[in-house]
Design a protein that fits this description.
InterPro entries: AIPM/Hcit_synth_CS (IPR002034), Aldolase_TIM (IPR013785), LeuA/HCS_post-cat (IPR054691), NifV/FrbC (IPR013477), PYR_CT (IPR000891). Belongs to the alpha-IPM synthase/homocitrate synthase family. By secondary structure, the chain is α/β, with parallel strands linked by helices. It folds into two domains: 261 residues, TIM Barrel, CATH 3.20.20; 89 residues, Orthogonal Bundle (Recoverin, domain 1). It contains 14 helices and ten strands. The strands form two sheets. It has an eight-stranded parallel beta barrel with strand order 1-2-3-4-5-6-7-8, surrounded by six helices. Helix 5 packs parallel to helix 6. The model has no long low-confidence stretch (mean pLDDT 91).
């Protein structure tokens, strides 16, 4: 079987931790089905310890029998795991703080306590579910020797995957590459990278982790998540294929529709310039760019927009220039003298400034009619 990088989506867990976001069951079903149909490798679907309502919702997702592994997120607390077992999920993620900052100042414990609690919870989970992910919270600020000790223990306990979390989004790609490749050398357990986007580097950091040898990446649709969010599914998936030339199972043509689905469910608009799924990311306005793609799309694209269910478009703006206007007029069968075209360009520029947006074809034709 050909090796590929696993895309582990946590939109229904970490994504739902974004301020003001709360998915109802129909919305969770819709998102889970969309991701599953697109070929996502794993779905982290919630936190059963939140209560009976969450347990019921996750249980209903399990009954859908989607062709994808469903896991839940848990603290290293037996009561959390017992709540997860009630849902019938195939796997559980068990999260343990690994930095001294969090061990001492959040838990008020020590490293020995963390290892002991980890051991108890993993052994308990191995009896109840088929897949166990060990999440290393705040691993980016943890001591390397302690991480190595945890990895060795995780292997003995039979953990299926270890998740390295840059919980506060403090890392940068070079540090990730050189640090994480050392973890890869000592780990016999597959490693996953979980990025936060506090400094705008979640996608770059996720790619650096893959280059260092990590086999899985944690993502959310649109980068939805706490604070500045997580690594974006669409950015990571496309970059894996077209930048790193890695094999991904996900159907990239579905990314746009998935993004719209989550946007509606979360009541959060997709920014116009959002990579991959933003309204403007395949739209060309400057005359130089429009002329370039008319000659060869490769002049101004790194991957075909059709590969992600999109297409090229053009708009008229401040930098569109004479050639772009003439091309539009010719397509409409309109022939104007030089003086009229000069007047038209001035009016287009004025209207662009007034509306503060690109002009649509109807806007242009309205200006043409008024100028003739």
């Amino acid at each position: 079987m050909e090796q590929r990088i696993l895309l582990c989506d946590t939109t229904l867990r970490d994504g739902e931790q974004a301020p003001g976001v709360a998915f109802g069951l129909p919305e969770k079903e819709m998102i889970a089905r969309a991701l599953s149909d697109a070929g996502i490798d794993e779905l982290e679907v919630g936190v059963p310890a939140m209560g009976d309502g969450e347990i019921k919702t996750i249980s209903q997702l399990v009954t859908l029998q989607l062709p994808v592994r469903l896991i839940t997120w848990n603290r290293a607390v037996l009561s959390d795991l017992q709540a997860s077992y009630k849902t019938g999920v195939e796997g559980v993620a068990i999260s343990i703080p690994t930095s001294d900052q969090q061990i001492k100042n959040k838990l008020r414990k020590d490293r020995a306590w963390v290892l002991d609690q980890m051991g108890q919870c993993v052994l308990n989970a191995k009896k109840e579910v088929g897949y166990v992910v060990l999440g290393l919270e705040d691993a980016s600020r943890a001591d390397f020797t302690f991480l190595a000790e945890i990895l060795a223990e995780a292997q003995k306990l039979g953990v299926d995957r270890v998740r390295f979390a840059d919980t506060v989004g403090i890392l940068e790609p070079l540090k990730i590459f050189f640090t994480l490749q050392e973890l890869v050398k000592i780990s016999r357990v597959p490693l996953e990278f979980h990025a936060h986007n506090d400094l705008g580097m979640a996608t770059a950091n996720s790619l650096a982790a893959v280059q260092a040898g990590f086999k899985a990446v944690s993502v959310t649709v649109g980068g939805l998540g706490e604070r500045a969010g997580n690594a974006s599914l669409e950015e990571v998936a496309v970059a894996l294929k077209y930048t790193l030339q890695e094999k991904v199972q996900l159907d990239l043509k579905r990314l746009n529709s998935i993004g719209l689905t989550v946007s509606l469910a979360s009541n959060r608009k997709i920014p116009r310039a959002k990579p991959i799924i933003g309204e403007d990311v395949f739209t060309h306005t400057s005359s130089i760019h429009i002329d370039g793609i008319q000659k060869d799309f490769a002049n101004y694209q790194t991957y075909p927009p059709e590969s992600v269910g999109r297409g090229h478009s053009t708009s008229i703006g401040k930098y569109s220039g004479r050639k772009t206007i003439l091309r539009l007029l010719k397509a409409k069968g309109i022939d104007l003298d030089q003086e009229t075209i000069d007047e038209l360009l001035i009016k287009i520029l004025q209207q662009t400034h007034k509306l503060k947006r690109p002009l649509e074809e109807d806007d242009i034709m309205g200006i043409v009619v008024s100028a003739c």
